Recover the amino acids of this structure.
């Protein structure tokens, strides 16, 4: 049986590059339109300014204050149950919390004569496209929720667990406001963590006092029982008496060791409360930006040119494929 190949070997072949180059005018027109569209969009977005504060986490600072050397402080920091209070990841979660956003909304802006909330309510300029979108989508957010959403968007943090640093970043349409709020974020974060840690250390001190008193009572009971036994058994000749003495002596040693350990924990917990001071090491202070950080015109133009190139290429290749399919049918 003979097979017949219907493939037309004489059909002209075409390349993607040649087909696209034939439509260079289309690429020129769409690129020009893309650039114009990107510039129009950038023009409708208010300028933004960014201010940053870089802080360092010093998780063994308090251990150094109570007399431990660097190695001992580091070792305790590696296993200390309080370390979670001062890990950079905690700062990020705290900054993202609604309660912290509420606090920042009440920050006083001396250069504006009002707080951050009312400044945003009266002077914040929404972009043209944001206003159009809110009109189309019929945004039902309350004024309070809208302002809090803006604050949440303006305040950002970047954590480096490797170096133990946190970058606090505030973006605003006024460079002075951005610097003032950035410094306020650092101060409020420091205060919130200090209050929480101080409360935690106070609770730990109460627990340490309770444990020390319990171990003291057990030690004193073991000591008194051993003393009474020695007073009533001046001549230890029987094996039973010697065994009882060894048992009481071991009980005395164990309770004394436990009491000494709990007393050391008490003094350490008391030192944490008495000498506690949470201060960030500020590696970079907030400064007033001289140049806007956005919108980035080059980024918008690049993105629109890419989209224009992809769309034009699909149009050229799709048009050629459709013509061949139509001719074949």
């Amino acid at each position: 049986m003979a097979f017949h190949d219907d493939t037309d070997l004489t059909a002209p072949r075409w390349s993607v590059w040649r087909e696209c180059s034939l439509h260079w005018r289309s690429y020129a027109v769409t690129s020009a339109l893309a650039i114009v569209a990107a510039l129009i969009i950038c023009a409708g977005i208010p300028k933004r300014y960014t201010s940053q504060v870089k802080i360092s986490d010093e998780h063994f600072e308090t251990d150094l204050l109570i007399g431990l050397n660097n190695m001992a402080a580091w070792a305790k920091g590696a296993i200390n149950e309080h370390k979670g209070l001062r890990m950079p990841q905690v700062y990020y979660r705290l900054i993202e919390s609604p309660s912290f956003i509420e606090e920042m909304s009440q920050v006083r802006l001396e250069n504006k004569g009002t707080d951050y909330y009312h400044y945003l309510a009266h002077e914040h300029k929404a972009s043209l496209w944001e206003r159009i979108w809110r009109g189309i989508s019929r945004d039902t957010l309350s004024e309070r929720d809208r302002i809090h959403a803006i604050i949440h968007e303006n305040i950002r943090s970047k954590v480096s667990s490797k170096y133990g640093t946190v970058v606090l970043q505030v973006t605003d349409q006024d460079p002075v406001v951005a610097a003032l709020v950035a410094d306020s974020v650092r101060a409020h974060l420091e205060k919130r963590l200090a209050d929480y840690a101080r409360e935690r250390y106070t609770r730990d001190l109460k627990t340490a006092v309770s444990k020390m008193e319990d171990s003291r009572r057990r030690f004193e009971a073991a000591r008194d029982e051993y003393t009474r036994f020695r007073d009533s058994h001046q001549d230890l000749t029987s094996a039973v008496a010697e065994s009882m003495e060894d048992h009481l002596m071991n009980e005395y040693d164990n309770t004394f060791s436990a009491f000494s350990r709990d007393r050391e924990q008490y003094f350490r917990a008391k030192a944490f409360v008495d000498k506690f001071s949470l201060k960030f090491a500020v590696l970079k202070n907030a400064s007033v930006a001289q140049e806007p950080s956005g919108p980035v015109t080059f980024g918008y133009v690049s993105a629109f040119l890419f989209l224009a190139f992809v769309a034009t290429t699909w149009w050229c290749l799709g048009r050629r494929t459709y013509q061949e399919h139509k001719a074949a049918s």
